[in-house]
Amino acid sequence: MYTTILLAVDTLSLLVMVGLGILALLGLIILVIISQYLQLWLQAFLSGARVSLLDLIMMRLRKVPPSAIVLNRIMAKKAGIDVPTNMLEAHYMAGGRVDRVIRAMIASGKAKIDLGWDRATAIDLAGRDILEAVKTSVDPKVIDCPSQISGKLTVDAVAQDGIQLRCKARVTVRTNLARLVGGATEETIVARVGEGIIATIGASQSHKTVLEQPDRISKTVLAKGLDSGTAFEILSIDIAEIDVGANIGANLQTAQAEADSKRFQAEAEQRRALAVAQEAEHLAEAQKNRALVVLAEAEIPKAISEALRSGNLGVMDLYKMKNVQADTEMRSSIGKSGS
Q1: Which domain does 196 fall in, by range?
Q2: Which residues, at least 6 apart from 66, have a Cβ–Cβ distance to it below 8 Å?
Q3: Which parts of the chain register pLDDT below 50?
């Protein structure tokens, strides 16, 4: 019996030792897992942007980098912006750029620009660079017109006197955050400004007027409200360069004169061909008439013979007629030799 008791005690001790070993192993595993997030948790705790260890572990399970969420939450908290971790996680999982959104909100807060979390995330998810937009809203940017992407060096327009003017403009714009989502981009601004420059120069009576007062272009274009429906607000339009190009009016007149000359030549050639055709027709008609005369003359001897046979014409009458014909031919020959 004593042996049985000792055996039971040894078995119990073995089970206790095994249980303690398993608990120690589990504790070690938990300690290793917690140690991965302990630094982030401590950093968030000391910064006043508390995040629980459970949240950090759940972030890893949701395939969200805990360091990105915690560091951005700390940065926002230090700037006076309290954004919960679940909102940061949701924006990250939606494909947003959490770091640029937080930095944009901090920059807008320093610049006294109203930019909430909902608007900032909406702009970021729309594919716009929210941080660049805030920087442009604070520090306006300059856009070249025409843009370098288009490959054109100048905006060309023709005044009413036919002289071509070549312009370069610089457009100073500021981002309008309220219209950033759904607003037109820089390409629209460049296209509208170029259209306004062409219209203003085209409405000028003389190119000299534009050269004397290039600011008229800026004032006229600004008055048209070209920034409506875009993500920007136009602050100024400056004519950086304006040069005189070709005399388009003279070139058009020269081309028109050449075209008229060719047209007149074609019409003259047509009339000449018509006259030649008519002359050929007249010659053919004359030859036809001569043939008819010859045929008629050929009938005269027949008629004379018939008159002689029938007794309507005597021999003396025939001789008289011959004499008249001979006299007539002699007079004709004399007249031709005298002329």
Answers
A1: 141-251
A2: 37, 40, 56, 59, 60
A3: none
